[in-house]
Amino acid sequence: MALRGPLSRLVSSTLRSCLQTRSHSVAIVGAPFSKGQKRRGVEHGPKAIRDAGLVERLSNLDYPVHDFGDLTFKHLEKDEHFMHVPFPRTVGRANQLLSGAVSGAVGAGHTCLMLGGDHSLAIGSVEGHSQQCPDLCLIWVDAHADINTPLTSPSGNLHGQSVSFLLKDLQNKMPQVPGFSWMKPFLSARDLVYIGLRDVDPGEHVILKTMGIQYFSMRDIDRMGIQRVMEVTLDHLLARKQRPIHLSFDIDAFDPSLAPATGTPVNGGLLSVMDVVEVNPTLGASPEAVEATTSLAVDVIASALGQTREGAHVAFPKITEPKEDTELRL
């Protein structure tokens, strides 16, 4: 199943090339990390996605693929709760390491694909991206807003607070969380769009409304259609100027109607970094269920990087012609 919608044709026909010319190579960075939430197993996501044929699929799209393997994360023995936030220093250190890896990949001219891991990793992924592209914009495809602060979060889990670490607009609402002194907020609320929200906490709802953040719930998508949602999203983010896009995609909350949201084409130089997170192979009820989820992750990635419904094909410079002495034999 190749996931691709009319958005791809829409974007390619209406957007000019990004001001920064990007190469057609893809760098894969694995982040097997799960301490941003309490459920184990999501650390196996990068391997499961690779085992589903990711590298082969991207190679068939005619991109040079550089797989840099998985980062190695250290889990601190002593990492006391901050308020009711578990593992703050471990999560902070992991994101600092990931930030450097993403920054290096983007700085080398690659489109970076970050495989998680839980969604707390987006803190480091987006921050590392911003080191190379400070004018980036962020599309967050998820059922959850992940914009709680330690003061509003019902669970304390940092995978539900990722965006709050990024936003300058929330700087005076965020306490100093241990483990995150290395980073400063850099993203404006106007540079963020949510797609697919359907489970927003009360505190998050207040933040979204107060900050005037653009978002589309599943109800909005049902009413408007995903193509119109993406038109409005890209107009909101790119009307002032074309700039790199960071797409952060929570596959655990996937809805089939969101497939075209991955259709921002890399060949225009716009999709610069993509996160695919929350793939947890231990939650599958059967091997077939696990395979379905990991295959879906590969489909989403291939769609974002340019695969059409017709599929990937080997590149031919021209139509092959028969030689003059070639005879047609029955």
Following the backbone from N to C, one meets helices and strands in this order, namely HEHHEHEHEHEHEHHEEH
> What is the arithmetic mean of pLDDT?
84
The fourth-level CATH homologous superfamily is Ureohydrolase domain
Beta-strand share of residues? 5-15%
What is the general shape? globular
What is the number of helices?
10
CA(first)-CA(last) distance: 37 Å
Major β-sheet annotation? 8 strands, parallel
Helix and strand content put the structural class at alpha/beta
Give me the count of strands: 8
Subunit arrangement of the protein: single chain
Q: Give the CATH architecture.
A: 3-Layer(aba) Sandwich
Do you know the CATH topology? Arginase, Chain A
* Overall number of structural domains: 1
Spatial order of strands in the largest sheet: 2-1-3-8-7-4-5-6
The radius of gyration is 20 Å
Question: Which spans have pLDDT < 50 for at least 5 consecutive residues?
Answer: 1-23, 262-268, 308-317, 326-330
CATH hierarchy, class: Alpha Beta
Pfam families: Arginase
GO molecular function: arginase activity; manganese ion binding
Subunit structure: Homotrimer.
Protein name: Arginase
